[in-house]
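Annex B. Sample input.
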Amino acid sequence: MILKTHRYVLRAVIEFVTPFLIGAGREGEISDSIFVSDANRLPALPGSSIAGAVRSAFRAAYGQEEERRLFGFQEKQDGAGAMVSVSWGCILDSKGLPVEGIADAKRLQDPVLLNARRPLIRDHVRINHRGASDAAEHGKFDEQAVSAGHRFIFEIELTGTEEDDASWDKLQRLLAEPSIRFGGKTRRGFGDFRFVQVMSRRFDLRREFDEYKKHPVSLAEPSGVLKRVEIERETSRNILLTVKPLGYWMYGGGYDIKADGKEADMAPFRDSRIVWTESGGKVSDSIAVIPATAIKGAIAHRVAFHYNALKAVFADQLDVDELKNNCGENNLAVRELFGYCAGEDNEQGKESGHRGRVLLDDIFLTDEPSSQLVHHVGIDRFTGGARDSVLFSERPFWKGESIALSLAITDIQGIKDAPHVLEALRLSLCDLAEGRLQIGAGSGRGLGYFQTDEKIHWPEELSAITEGTACQI
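Annex B, continued. Sample output.
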């Protein structure tokens, strides 16, 4: 029996830079999906969710053998317990203090905690290969996600020996990887975070047992024995693109907040988030948001177009079944980059599917552009006159500051036909940068044109595969 002489401890405070959702596995009273909550009805960050995300990334980076040794496994009569243990994550209130145990009613009136208990509901609709909403098979749904900006504290501990120093270093480095996100819907822009504070230490119990005993079990109690370390989330391998709107643009699904007495039928999407300063956390309401799903959907459709063009697959040369196999979510490039669900495969039985490899974040507009109420009326195609009861209005944004987009690509080596798939993605981003790809609502009415005068940052790791360089105006 190996004597476990060392304890490796890490305590981290994280801040979610996008909304996150750890599903409770059931529907709510007002939404199709609700988050896991504690006894205070506050959002919780289960240790199993943290451990699962870290374990999956560790296996992908360092192999199954070391992953099983650290995180445990069970195979019939064979198995081993985990060397790594993870605590539940506790939410922080507006003063930056963790909420552990049953909180009294007065403390739950904290504005940050009130926001956590009653987040906004997000609506979604699946888009088909024609670019229209797809109502079949739950194509319209909503979910109750926790607002961006909330902070949580959790702890990771490794029980091992001096020989586990290298594994502990790997584990800490891995936390900087952009592929690690907490919760579900991570390919829709959810679950991204940054480190606010990280405290860590290696304890040799043969000499430092008294020091280890001083480390508190409670996350709400500060630790005087851990040491500050820096962990920055890795972004140097991301695709970076800055675009500027050329005219009117909007991401719909929101509510009109203008106090001009004229409420628009369609308005930009808005959400709340927590903004932190030295004095603590504050709820900022009604911030205009560019959802990651809206950007991803437009890019995915254009990726299918370019991939088919690169592979010389043209519609006038295919029958109906072949068209379906090369469009939308059935297109190989779309499946490799944006994932697909498990389904039936005629030759190999049931295919397992895989999650998407493209990671995008929701973008919160700190400086909201000016907007204008625009009226519309439906036109009768036969008479050329106005149709009855089809008058509507919208309040799109007018131009504004540049918007920075960041795309992280994971598991690049696992992409089938990677040269053509990644080249299709590059060409799609070039279309967006050069004003050929509209994004957002109202594209059929001339909204959503963007352009850049800067070079797209295309990482060397991708250039080595596509043998191309990003476009430049």
